[in-house]
Amino acid sequence: MFVGALSLDLLLGDVHSLKEKRGVVRPIVAELRKRFEVSVAEAGHLNLHRRALVGVAVVAADRGHCVDVLEACERLVAARPEIELLSARQRFMSEQDE
Q1: Which stretches of 15-82 are assigned E, i.e. beta strand?
Q2: How many CB atoms neighbour CB 5 within 10 A?
Q3: pTM of the predicted model, to two decimals?
Q4: Any residues with CB less than 8 A from the CB of 85 and at least 6 apart, and which?
Q5: Domain ranges across the chain
Q6: Between the N and C ends of the chain, which has fewer C-beta atoms within 10 Å?
């Protein structure tokens, strides 16, 4: 069993309040959750209205599947015109890591 985690640091475009930020981040989180069946949440920069840190997690039988899913998630977010993907970081854990 493998667990993959992806951290996406986002710069939001024309956003001037935390309410507007929610209107941009929520659809991204919902689309990732629905399309890829992953766990996803806004996990950082909560009080900054133009930044967001989105965390994505997936569990799979092999590392390759985790990599494929997380890379697809990253591509989907990077393709959105209203945001700029500042950085993406993947991490993996397995049962052998204990």
Answers
A1: 39-44, 51-60
A2: 16
A3: 0.89
A4: 8, 9, 10, 74, 77, 78
A5: 2-97
A6: C
